[in-house]
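Appendix B. Raw example, untouched.
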Amino acid sequence: MRADVRRLMLLQAGNVLLLAAGLAVVVIGVDALTALLVGSSGNPGLGGFGAVVMLGGGVLSLVFGVFAYRWTARGERYAPLFGVLGWAVLWLPLSLAAAVLTGGHPAASFIATGISGVGIVLSLVALGSKKPR
């Protein structure tokens, strides 16, 4: 396998991971908002603002992920920048979602930072590469 094809496959794998992480954050945000509206919130410190931030950030990162995935498939030169933007936008909602999942453990923000950092590095690996002809 040629190096440029391998790099493109790695970039598309990072884009798919961005879409999966964004979708997971949206699902956790919907769950937190539903629990808040029903009145059975297991995490009273999060509140409605945290759930809305998770929903908004998750949807925005999904939009960036779709742009990154499609533009990479078309061979656009700056498509990885949308992946970087998606991971950067996803950091705060992912941190909130990790806090909800871990019950407010202090390591939740470090987990979210690590996941977002790896995603940004994956997106920057192929910056400037073109689709193989």
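End of appendix B.
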